[in-house]
Queue: 3 jobs
Job 1
Amino acid sequence: MAKPRVDMADKTMLVVGGTTGLGLSAARALVSEGAKVVVVGRSEASAVRAAAELGDSARAAVGDATQSETSDRAVAAAVEFGGRLDGLYHVAGGSGRRFGDGPLDEVTDGGIERTLALNLSSMIRSNRAAVKQFLRQGGGGVILNMGSVLGFSPAPSFFATHVYAASKSAAVGFTKSIAAYYAGDDIRANVIAPALVETPMAQRAANDDAIRAYIRRKQPLEGGRIGRPEDLDGAAVFLLGDGARYVTGQVLAVDGGWCVSEGRV
């Protein structure tokens, strides 16, 4: 049987939350496979840096993913750049801890609203814009949404942000629902769920000795290290590509062993 090829040469991909961290790493991988890529981020400076690094095969846009107009403009930019939209990778999101997320008895109204906006509402908006474009094109397309192992595998001793966990759990339910509804249009939707990865959001954990000791047990692969953005690239490229053309409604944990390890405190 022939080995599936990762051929992105005729693909146009949109990465929302793609100017830094996990999204930028994935954009690099997609460009290296031949895709045209549009990345979207909140910061003008990071967008300029990303565009310079990714080169002529990419474009960068600035916008707040929690606003519908950002997704609409990003999809339009991808279509203008590549002639069509083939895939969306929604990475945008973040911790709501500084807004008031935490253990449920301490959660503030602001923490609820901002955390859900960052991680769930933004995803629904970008997915909606992408699906509308896929349907305008006559069907076909792929969505990959960013989840987290915390959505289904809690770590209460160190990662008790309950609204964040709820948003990531909801991302799974949302993605499976749209995967089922649009399967007949050949629109696929999947979730990638990392454990702790070296990103700006992870700095609190990465600089905490107790959490690092916990991660050595909870993510035991390769010496118990914290994940790196590039650890997710292969999975992302696969799920966005034709090699996964018969895969939809699935959750792939890229977690260094988190979900099968106890990580006792």
Job 2
Amino acid sequence: MNPEKPSKNEDEYFVRRDLEKKKQWESERLARMADEERKQLRETHYMKCPKCGMDLHEFELEDVKIDRCVSCGGTWLDESEMEEILKHHSQGPLARVMSIFK
């Protein structure tokens, strides 16, 4: 046996190792792309109406900032904003309507 020539087992080992490295690099590349894509989507959709895609404008209703689309008239609440509004209206028709969305 020639000491300079790798054995079949050595060849297989290096081929497997190279394949594992390539898989890892591809996995890391895809993760970076996914992060970049999420960032781009976030920037593209930030303060845009989910219904028509136009700009949302913020206004205050009882110390709660609400997003409203001036194009289609859609009104959008961020997380916990509905609870803040309900704190001010624990009684009456608005409380009954808002309780549907709890």
Job 3
Amino acid sequence: MTPFVEYFLSHSEFSDPGRFESTLLELPDDPAEICRVIQGLLIHPSWIPSYEASIDEDRVYSEQQARRVVDIIHNLFTLKDAPLVEPRPAQQRAVGVCRNFSLLLCSTLRCKGVPARLRSGFAPYFDPGYFEDHWICEYWSASGQYWVRVDPQLDAVQRKILNITFDPCDIPVDAYLYAGEAWVMCRKGRADPADFGVRDLNGLGFIKGSIVRDILALNRIETLPWDLGWGILDKHYLSGVDRAELGYVDRLARCSANSLVHLAHSFFNDDDKIRFPEGWALSMAPTIGELMRG
């Protein structure tokens, strides 16, 4: 096992299950089975109507804000004190975005001694002709000697509605773009930046933010998708990318597109545009509720 594979065996501050480690160790060992368990525990806010569930708005905003696996599991046991392997009615699942699904899978795999990491990028399978902001989990296949890409959010309901024909537990190369790949496509004129984002948020500024989050994920820093307020992700970053900044983001994009872990570490350790500055704390980042409610 290479050092940069072994690096992803260790927990981050966010994937560490703490007192719930034994709970995750009780889950199945097979990644596909772990995904099925997770799909019975979490529900994506955008998909709530598809499960005919009714969930209070305050719950929707507060639960998807869960930053750490410890918080996710705490929410689950608060909603229903039952083993995690038992599927739950939709209204008793914790609300979480794609990043939360992927973080719970990543944490479980790391607990079981399987190198795993999150990736930030874009999926073309939610809305034809559009690349939606989306997080997945990758784990290292010791037998295949490659990083297997997994979308733990895609359960049977979503696969049917979206007409998914590939295996979500081994996403093919052409079915998902790392954030850096999206940037390269747009810079070479092969794609329109307006086709990358979520809802009415899109463009090169949005893609830049996804690249930074992918670089951080390669440093085992699994931010929330809406974290901002430092360096290159100041509060105005969504407004676009300055011409003077293009070459710098090009370098970040190549790192993300090619999964260059050593270079991602160098960016974070040596570059204050990426690294959190002294005095910045994750608790200072806006919540999804603050952003959505204005």
